[in-house]
Structure prediction request, 532 residues.
Amino acid sequence: MSDVSELFEDLFVGADGIMLFSPSSSYYQAFADLEDTDVIVAGQENEHGADSFVELPLAFEDIAEQLTFAIEGALDDGLVEEGDELLCGAKLFDEDDVDTVARVRASEGENSGVYDLFTQSRAEPSVIRSVFEVAIELGQKGQKGKPVGALFVVGDAGKVMNKSRPLSYNPFEKSHVHVGDPIVTVMLKEFSRLDGAFVISDSGKIVSAYRYLEPAAEGVDIPKGLGARHMAAGAITRDTNATAIVLSESDGLVRAFKGGELILEIDPENY
Amino acid sequence: MQVDQALVEVSHLIQEPIVLALLVLVFGLLLGLAIGRINKRILTAAGIGDAVEGTAFERTARSIGTSTVALIARVTSWFIYGVTILTAIHISGLFDAPAFWVRVAEFAPRLLIAVLVVIAGFILADKAELAVSERLKDIKLPEIGILPLVVKYSVLYIALLIALGQVGVNTTALLVLLTVYVFGVVLIGGLAFKDFLASAAAGMYLLLNHPYGIGDEVRIGDRQGIVQEMTLMTTRIENDHEEYILPNRLVFEHGIARMRN
Prediction:
């Protein structure tokens, strides 16, 4: 006869580290006292002051995506090494406490640059996160129930402004609003029916709407079938150090471009 | 006939000082109780209970089985009880030392205010400490912990000074100390923040009037580049090789040259 813990032993033996996803305080404390195993906390905020912490910029619905992102972040920050076996404790059904454990092998190979998108971009991570949130919300609800498209160019605003021209008067002229301010989401939604791109500075200030981007488009490699908006997004990120976040009007997906490449593709319905 | 007689007797009885004093005493105690209750309601409705949540004073109050709101309400009740008892004693004429009681009666309200000031001072000091340390939370520097404490004890010091002044203690020496302290803070602060103030004033103008905006190519002094960011304190300009973070006062010192291409 073997009991349950014996049967599941394979899962736990020889793990190099533990990763907890937004654990409660008491749950984390119980793990923090472990002597020979590293404990990494992943979550939206480091509320327990853990030494090893990976910030999750979005509230991932899909656990697998969440794990991949966090491990990529841990690899980038040097918290774990290539080939380490990690025990990941996450919340799948339970809202309050960890109820799921997965054993995952950290590997550099599938580094998609998603984590870099947030932490290594010119703009601050919180700004990129706020723009993502606006794009996702816009993708879920649309403008007055109809699907809309939008293009946000975040960071390196000076260069972007130099490589673009206004299509009409800039509604954000002489204003000092930042993404993430509560009223701004509504403003961005309203202005998203205008053609052209939004330009947002490193610190999140909305510099302009209605911009026609004029980057050099040669050498931009984006998947075939995407439209002019995506092409413009890819091209401007190749020409400048900006990050572009695009909401597609036709298929409703939110895509992020950096360095002329498609980095991240998410479906707003999943968030 | 009988009723009339009873009424006369009652009115005679009330004229007796000792009975009158008892009546005043009962009335005063009831009034004190009622005022205490009403006070508690008002303080709770005004959100004082939530506002002091988490301060050291509130925690101390909780640990001895009460709360700030209850404490303030009780202090006012006690004050009314005290005045009542004094009045009753005075009316009953049991003790005949008018000069002493008059002084006590004069002193009591000031003592009440002093106690309230001390309580308010403690709460304010805790709140200020919390607010400052919250602001400095992101700065991971152990020595920074001294700043919230300095703020806390400054507020406490002033509160104590006011309270002592209320009860008539001679506070001249303490006042001199406060003056020296404030003078020092203002002088050092003024010296240290001179440039900040100049930059902020210039930044205010720049943000309001927008002589240049993000994306413009400008030259400030001998630095030239594309404007990337404008804030209250600084302007960030960048060229192909370097990124300059310029205090806004430099923009005013050197003037701005806008490049035309």
User: Anything to note?
Assistant: The CA atoms of residues 99 and 254 of chain B lie 74 Å apart. Chain B has nine helices and five strands. Residues 98-135 of chain B form the longest helix (38 residues). Chain B touches chain A at residues 207, 210, 213-215, 217, 225-229, 231, 237-238 (CB under 8 Å).
